[in-house]
Amino acid sequence: MTSSRTDQLTLDPRDHVVEFYGADDELAAPVSSYLGEGLKAGGSAVVMASAAHQLAFAAELVAAGIDVGAAQAAGRLLMLDASESLHGFLSGDRLDRARFDSAIGGLIRRAATTGPPVCVYGEMVALLWDGGHVNAALELEELWNDLASGLPFSLWCAYPARLAAGAGNADAVEQVCRLHSSVIGSQPGRPGEVEVPGPGSDAVRGFPQAREAPRAARHFVVDTLGSWGDQALAGDAAIVIAELAANAVIHARSDFTVSVSRHAAGVRISVLDASPMSSMNGGAALVASHGHGLGVVARLASKWAVEPLPGGKVVWADLPALS
Asked: How many whole angstroms separate alpha carbon 10 and alpha carbon 8?
């Protein structure tokens, strides 16, 4: 079956969904909502993803009110590198079923000891496909299904849509879809409804620690709002992102990730960097002094905050919708 894309997707145990996404910014909000629902219900979440996606998911979870650090300390939130996880049961270009059951099955069995539900997100299949091992990716999907026959967990798989492009991939894509209980959005290569960005829309982009990065981040935010029809917020948003991005480059001295989230009440602009709050003079660099820096952000935003994350922090500001 095909499911419309949503940021409120709740999966039942043994559901196995697949998403072919066009850009990284399509993942953060819906996947984090799925993981967050499981954590809020008292269960656990297991993530096997790239470092950039892990940070984006963590930022969204924090914004949703989840104490990411506490969840990790309690063993209820496991963030793992997809490539390292894959190589735990990959021999050359072949999958080792016994090692998969031991490594991945063991991981999920441990997660299940905290209580249901167990929500799993994985990108290992996409890594295999991207490396030219399409048959191995299909085999891994089958291994997941076999594992789910004996363990109650839900699984969200994600592939970049570019991997499925081209007529030569049609049969393999069709097989991928058959191996899942549902497809999020439209199956690649098939007509689907055109979606207009609405509440829950999200755009994410990473930037290097460089002098020109704040200007590039400003263009990204303004262009995103323009594509969403929110030009009225562009002026304030440009000022806010300029301050937050400059903080990341000058004070955090870090590469950073910008997230723009559209909600019914307005827009949230977030900047995530790899510098912990404790390294910044006890947080003094983040004080909202009147008239400049974060003082400008505080004046324009309906609310804003600085929140610690594993391996860094996120600074966010909400801009109210203009009537």
From this structure: 6
Tell me the whole-structure pTM to 2 decimals.
0.57
CB 278 within 8 A of CB 231: no
Which amino acid, residue 318? D
**What are the Cα distances from residue 238, in Å, to 216, 231, 272, 319?**
11, 11, 17, 11
Contact call for residues 312 and 256 (beta carbons, < 8 A)? no
What are the tokens at 109?
């069995």
Q: For residue 88, how many C-alpha atoms fall within 13 Å in the half-sphere facing its CB?
A: 19
Q: For every one of its 323 residues, what pLDDT tens digit does the chain have, with 9 covering 90 and above?
A: 333 344 445 567 778 888 887 767 678 888 888 898 899 989 999 999 988 888 889 988 998 888 998 999 988 999 999 999 998 898 877 898 999 999 999 999 988 888 789 999 999 998 898 888 888 999 999 999 898 888 889 999 988 877 776 556 777 888 888 888 777 754 454 433 333 344 445 677 778 888 888 988 898 888 888 878 887 888 999 999 999 999 888 888 888 888 888 777 788 999 988 887 654 443 334 444 434 567 788 889 998 888 887 677 888 899 987 65
d(CA 84, CA 53): 15
**Residues 183/6, Cβ–Cβ less than 8 Å:** no
Domains of the chain: 2-184 (3.40.50.300), 202-320 (3.30.565.10)
HSE-CB of 195 using CA atoms within 13 angstroms: 13
* Tokens describing residue 241: 């992102």
